[in-house]
Design goal:
Layout: E1 11-15, H1 18-21, H2 34-37, H3 40-43, H4 46-51, H5 53-68, H6 74-85, E2 89-93, H7 99-103, E3 108-110, E4 113-120, E5 124-127, E6 146-149, H8 158-170, E7 173-177, H9 189-195, E8 199-203, E9 216-218, H10 222-225
Parallel strand pairs: 1-2, 1-7, 2-3, 7-8, 8-9
Antiparallel strand pairs: 4-5, 4-6
Helix pairs in contact: 8-9
The structure holds adenosine-5-diphosphoribose (APR).
Length: 233
């Protein structure tokens, strides 16, 4: 399959953990997934943070170290190149690892927040990039800083959801890469794109419950599927 992206007005790359798998960042589900090694109840929910903020922050530092040891792969580079050559490209990602931005994408909607931000309950969001957090506590008021990530039981930021939904509604090509399609509202995005007449392509070595919605599926990893998928502009 070769896609001529110039034939589409608005293209959304909708990505999940499988997008970063070939960079070495573990996925959440499946064998070797983060949630089979760590109980999310202890590390990825507000209750865990309130019970032991230090433990939760230390876990996220481990994830930051793991992500910084990885690099975007050729699949990320293809998506970044597509944004350079096409004015209607948006990335809607469930990933918190910042890999698309590291590869060069600018229009990235992060549905589930970012490993590279912290939040003070009183002083708002702070950008903090590095293996270690600069401080676990707000320098202004001393409150514990919480990773600016959507954890289990959290609501998504309504502004971010509406921006993402708008991009999905407007797109005429949706390329979904590396998501298991079980976490909502993101799991509903392919259906929204379909209802609005977009062409839907799935890149994922494994089928899942949402796979039937796609017009075409590529059953290989992102790193081998993306190079060569688009006609050179
Ligand atoms: N290329 C493409 N897809 C891959 C690859 C690869 N190399 N390797 C694995 N996959 C696929 C798996 O088959 C699976 O369908 O990536 C998907 C990863 O699924 P999850 O681990 O469930 O990740 P995701 O869908 O992003 O999870 C959604 O769940 O825990 C929360 O907030 C977390 O954002 C995350 C959300």
């Amino acid at each position: 399959m070769e896609i001529d992206s110039s034939g589409y007005k608005n293209i959304v790359y909708f990505t999940g953990a499988g997008m970063s798998a070939e960079s070495g960042v573990p996925t959440y589900r499946g064998s070797g997934g983060i949630w089979s090694e760590y109980r999310w109840q202890e590390y990825a929910c507000q209750t865990a943070f309130e019970e032991d903020p230090q433990k939760v922050l230390a876990f996220h530092e481990l994830r930051r170290q793991a992500v910084l040891a990885c690099r975007p792969h050729t699949g990320h580079d293809v998506i970044a190149e597509q944004e350079r050559v096409h004015s209607g490209v948006t990335v809607v990602t469930q990933n918190i690892d910042g890999m698309h931005q590291r590869a060069g994408n600018k229009k990235v909607i992060e549905l589930h927040g970012s490993l590279w931000r912290l939040r003070c309950p009183w002083h708002g969001v702070i950008e903090d990039i590095g293996e270690k957090y600069q401080s676990y506590k707000c320098r202004g008021c001393g409150s514990w800083l919480r990773p600016d990530i959507v954890w289990f039981g959290d609501s998504l930021d309504p502004g971010v959801v509406s921006e993402a939904t708008g991009a999905i509604r407007n797109c005429d090509l949706l390329v979904s890469i590396g998501t298991s399609g079980v976490v909502w509202p993101a799991a509903g995005f392919p259906q929204i794109a379909r209802e609005n007449g977009a062409r839907l392509i799935e890149i994922n070595p494994e089928p899942n419950e949402m796979s039937h919605l796609y017009d075409e599926t590529i059953r290989t990893g992102a790193g081998s599927a993306l190079p060569g998928l688009f006609k050179k502009q």
